[in-house]
Amino acid sequence: MKAMIVYSSLTGNTKAVAEAILEIMPEGTELYPVDEAPEPKAYDFIAIGFWADRENADKKAQGYISTIKEKRVALFMTLGAYPDSQHALNTMENAKKLFLDNNNDIMGTFMCQGKVDPRLVQRFNSLPADHPHGMNAERKARLEEAAKHPNETDFKNAQKAFEGILKGR
User: Against a cut of 0.85, is the pTM above it?
Assistant: First the structure.
């Protein structure tokens, strides 16, 4: 099986998860940032990682995803929200639709929390408190928790998820 991992990373979160996943992938698996990824034609299995942006994969990842057709794929995502939140679930479902449009076989998914881009945090802080994205106690607590991720537990969970994906579970 010829495999590769492609990732889009803004703050380094998704890159770190990609590197952890690479450790358990079959020998010869290639790792690429999305801007340097080759055409997917020659690969049997593609793991693609992205960061959540407006309830979907980020734009760079979406561009690359559109080139993947009729492949076995697995998705992994990092986001500032809690991975069990409705926002996370919606984001992953929207990303999955991008793959299904091109008749890809989604073998599995993984998501974990990650630190949020400081520019976005600064923007939250500048919004009025009554704005839907304004800083409040809940958002502040979530951002503080997100800043602790991804961590070793997240990396181990990603590896375990991908071991299962590779075994067809």
Answer: yes
* pLDDT tens track for 14-59: 999 999 999 999 999 999 999 999 999 999 999 999 999 999 999 9
Measuring CA to CA, which residue among 108, 48, 117, 46 is closest to residue 79? Answer: 117
d(CA 38, CA 134): 40
- Are residue 81 and residue 96 in the same domain, yes or no? yes
Residues 146-169 pLDDT 10s: 999 999 999 999 999 999 999 986
DSSP state of 150: S
Residues 98 and 144 in one domain: no
Same domain, 54 and 38: yes
For residue 91, give the H/E element and its range.
Answer: helix 86-100
Task: Tell whether 94 and 83 lie within a shared domain.
Answer: yes
Sign of the dihedral through C-alpha 60, 33, 109, 117: negative
Domain that holds residue 140: 116-148
DSSP-assigned states of every residue in 27-83: TT-EEEEGGGPPPGGG-SEEEEEEEB-SSSB-HHHHHHHTT--S-EEEEEEEESS-T
Asked if residue 124 and residue 101 are part of one domain, the reply reads no
